[in-house]
Amino acid sequence: MFVIPQHWFSVSKKTMAQFAEAESFISNKLKNELSPKLTYHSYYHSIDVLEAALRIAENENVTGEPLALLRVAIMFHDSGFLHTYKDHEELGCALVRKHLPDFEFTPEQIELICGMIMSTKIPQQASNVLQQIICDADLDYLGRNDFYPIGLTLFEEWKQFLNIQSEEEWNNIQLSFLRQHFYHTNYSRAKRQQLKQTHLEQIEKIVAAY
Fold this sequence. Notes:
Elements: H1 13-34, H2 43-59, H3 64-76, H4 88-99, H5 107-119, H6 129-138, H7 147-161, H8 167-180, H9 186-191, H10 193-208
Helix pairs in contact: 1-3, 2-3, 2-6, 3-5, 4-5, 5-6, 8-10
């Protein structure tokens, strides 16, 4: 259930209701249509990203309407998977442009949300604080204790959709990705970078043993 944080004091009640309705609309679609078919990019991944983003946003002093737009962007950021696996970010933006006018979002708000969604496309390219937050939240797990179990769900998904079959192939992909990834925000660098580096070193040893 959507709960409006108290610090959204700078956003009108009407606007808060529109954000809540939009978030509820896409959340229901993700839960009912996406989660049954994807092991990683599911509704639960979006909730994980949202929880991480709220922690980062608090540290970055992001509140009010920007925080509300960030929430909606997060719930839409993987919505393109409802219809395609490749280039899902572009389709996610198309869904934003299709549906958010129904909730009275302005063209400016819609473009801000699309900018956040597109910034998560690999390789990530973040040009403002909201894009930095969503990018770091999307890959928050790289520096967490649940790195391996969450990674396994992505491996299972890629076996189905990208024909990745062997653990050796998967670990080489992980190694390459961890080497090029970097966190954008002060919070993520302070809280996630050290353990992410440990995971990188562990994967390096695994790959070297093949």
